[in-house]
Amino acid sequence: MNTILVVNNNFEGAYGSINLFVQEIVYALKKMNQKVFWVNSISEAVELYENETIDFSIGIGKYLFYLGEKPLYDLYERMHYQWIIDNPLKIEIDTNSKNIKYILIDKLFASCISNARNPFLYLPLGIPNLRTENVLKKEYGIVFSGQIRNSNKIFEEISLNDKKQEMIKIIDKLTSDLDILYIPEMMERTEKISMSDRKVIFSLTNSFIRAYKREKVLNSIKDIPVIIIGDNSSEIVSKNKNILLLGNASYYDSFKLMSKYMYSLNVEPNFNTGFHDRILRAAANGNVVITNQGDIQQEMFDDDAVFYNYSNINMIEDKIKRLQKKEAVEMGSRLAEKVFSYFVWEKILDIIICDFGGITRNANNRLFRVLGNKTL
After folding, report:
1. 172 and 56, same structural domain?
2. Which of 104, 112, 160, 282 has its CA 20 to 30 A from that of 253?
3. pLDDT confidence of residue 135
4. Distance between CA atoms of residues 121 and 51, nearest Å
5. What is the CATH number of the domain that holds 14?
6. Are 107 and 371 in contact (CB under 8 A)?
7. d(Cα 324, Cα 314) in Å, to the nearest integer?
8. CATH number of the domain that 160 lies in?
């Protein structure tokens, strides 16, 4: 048994789901018979480090637990695992400490971090080990959960920026072939500029490409009902008669809404070599997942998801129309079994515990290998 400290960042807004993930981690670790402490403040964390023998700690997103300029994992010389669930260019990364190990949900994120002291772990966020019933009662329709911004408005911001020439070169290349991977292209184009300028270029080009592709994909579906959960400022999407806009919903409520429909659409063009939590939780609901092509997803899901290429997005509607309801239900059920076999929190957290303890059974874990991890 390990004594594990789980640190909560108390995020709100777009990243409010982090609080929920932390609660799920704590619950799963307790089920695994680990000794777990959950803290929301620096003072609570310090008290535990002073009075308990903490083996290691876990956090998600941005690490906020410092005394002065020193992180608590260095102050107390304890290993810390930090999950990076969005592009690392959005936060400050500690590449100096031997006491922190980063967990990346996408393998391409590694190219955005230079000279980390410890090897990365590549792992998605887990899912609760809870089964959804009434799969047969799903309504016919495609549900999308996520923000849809107006790509033209973002391009206007880019046009006013002093780095617009560099940004437009990236955008021109990526929009000429929508299947080009964003992160390698952006990193190559910004290789010789400062990190501060790279972050500015990333912020705007990342936003543009995501919005542009979401508009393209959603606009390609004409005859099948599409239900959108989340903010929408895109005039292109709003005009489509087959689209129903439900507005914002809390993280858990969005998946309850998604579970009512047969299909779940994922349009996340900048996560190509890992698993977004949206895909895994939709699959756990028994949804037939529609997502952009990726070798890792294809290897784990095989033919039990509908994959598309951005350069041929009309195939989405064609594939759905050819699927019989019985076949779609069976696909959803098979995919649900796969995600419950590999992606529940207990399975994901066991990989971290084994990594900390130097236990070699990770080598036998198929997901661990497919994601490109190496055993100690």
Report:
1. no
2. 104
3. 54
4. 29
5. 3.40.50.2300
6. yes
7. 19
8. 3.40.50.2000
